[in-house]
Design brief:
Layout (H helix, E strand, L loop, with lengths): L1 E7 L4 E8 L9 H4 L4 H21 L5 E6 L7 H15 L6 E6 L7 H13 L3 E7 L5 H7 L4 E4 L1 H4 L6 H16 L3 E4 L5 H9 L4 E2 L8 E2 L7 H16 L8 H7 L3
Parallel strand pairs: 2-3, 3-4, 4-5, 5-6, 6-7, 7-8
Antiparallel strand pairs: 1-2, 1-8, 1-9
Helix pairs in contact: 2-3, 3-4, 8-9
Length: 258
Amino acid sequence: MAFQPIIDVETAEVYAYEALVRPTGGGDASDILDRMHGHNRYAFDQMCRVKAIELAAQLELDSFLSINFLPNAVYEAAACLERTLDAARHASFPLHQLIFEITENEPTRDIHQFKEIFSQHKQNGMITAIDDFGAGHSGLSMLADFQPDIIKIDMELTRNIHTDRVRRSIARAIVSLCRDLNILVIAEGVETVDEAVTLRGLGVSLFQGYLFAKPAVESLPVILSGAIDAVHAAHEIKLARGDEPEIPFARARRLAGG
């Protein structure tokens, strides 16, 4: 398992770390995930969740821990939750620091089961998120059925957003929709200052991507503070020029007491 930070550029602090599947000897997640099939998918999904919680506790993580789960690998919501609760109890990791992400890259066969999983996790004080939003299989129909605490905008929408009017319009609409529904927004896959500044101007202040840190296997990566400073400076220059952005939603939510 590896960890990659999600940065709040307003406060220059780590909002969360996402636990990611990575080979210990180096390589890509696909090197492992391509070997996962129906007969071992459920066990692997559970094993990753437990391992992430155990490692986070060992690393004395004091921010949120974000963990992915595969909706079609979860056979029963209660069993999924109980394994998570057991792992957190044994590792003495606070439940309120857990974020559970469902990826939109995989089609959800049973929306009722999906809603039950999220509902049970929320009832136990955990935070819920939809990952890779805009990537594809469910999108707005999933959001209509269930409103998570967080939406993560897929990297295909954030890539080169500073030069793409269509992507900016889509991202602006997502941020506006999430503001109406009281959902936090995280921009994924941010690799350049231009991308981050453009997204910040649209109201996003939570970022994840190589601009700030690459994933580190079984450790917390070094955060490139210079990147945070560069985004802040470029944002201030835009303000001074009169390019008034929307208020970042994380700040708006805090001001509203949400």
